[in-house]
Design a protein that fits this description.
By secondary structure, the chain is an alpha/beta fold. Helices cover 32% and strands 17% of the residues.
Length: 253
């Protein structure tokens, strides 16, 4: 699943099923699994005491009742937040999981796309998130993972730590827009090129496929987006609404 078949489009649940449940929570992941996704994508950040937690934003406020920057908080403080009520009262008391809890709580054969979020505070740390991730993968024996990031220097460090890990390079808007996918991927030792659905072109997909790269696009949240992504050569679509997109794909067959 890390290297998807060319004969069908892979559906990846973005932060689980972020359109129908609070993003990056176990409830969201369960909904994505129930929808029949091929893979789940989520974000991880490093806490002040060195734990990887599943959260997108640098700060807690948007998707929980907590406050503060995750990089400056211990894991216990992060997990004390209610991460579900902001979305709906039905998800009250949903928590921000650690990455290890995700490994334990989800099927071991379910492919996971782990996006590492990393900003300036990590440069001052003795340990960096990619090193913590590699240690956790080795300790738990978790396979079926694809590691991605907008931080391409981090991806290069990750590759040096463990060259066997599959890497997906996220194309940085504006900076990488005019670059060939093969060039962006080569610099980061990536097997998968990931960009916004609005930025994918047939020319980009052809370049990627010529160099044996897989193409994934995010932001595929409507049937129109899906048809455009497929027509332009996407191998995988990353969506907030996996049930809807899977149903649309079945209708095309």
């Amino acid at each position: 699943m890390i290297e998807p078949p060319r004969d069908r489009t892979i559906v990846v649940g973005h932060r689980g099923s972020a359109g129908t449940a609070p993003e990056n929570t176990m409830a969201s992941f369960r909904q994505a699994i129930d929808a029949g996704v091929d893979m789940i994508e989520f974000d991880v950040r490093l806490t002040a005491d060195g734990h990887l937690v599943v959260h997108h934003d640098r700060k807690l406020g948007r998707t929980s009742d907590g406050r503060g920057e995750i990089a400056h908080l211990p894991v216990a403080a992060v997990q004390s937040c209610d991460a579900g009520s902001w979305f709906s009262p039905a998800f009250r008391d949903e928590r921000i999981p650690t990455l290890e809890e995700v490994f334990t709580g989800l099927p071991g054969d379910l492919p996971l796309n782990i996006e590492i979020k990393s900003e300036s505070p990590y440069r001052r740390r003795e340990r960096q998130p990619e090193a913590v991730l590699v240690d956790l993968l080795r300790r738990t024996g978790r396979g079926n993972v694809l590691i991605s990031s907008f931080n391409h220097a981090l991806l290069r460090r990750l590759h040096r730590l463990d060259p066997s890990l599959p890497i997906g390079v996220l194309s940085v808007p504006v900076r990488d827009t005019l670059s060939r996918p093969s060039r962006v991927a080569r610099r980061s030792n990536a097997r998968v090129f990931v960009c916004s659905q609005s930025l994918l072109t047939k020319k980009k997909a052809e370049d990627a496929h010529t160099h044996s790269l897989y193409v994934a696009v995010y932001g595929v949240n409507t049937v129109k987006h899906l048809h455009r992504a497929c027509a332009r050569g996407a191998d995988a679509v990353i969506t907030d609404y996996p049930a809807k997109i899977i149903a649309a794909l079945k209708g095309r067959r």
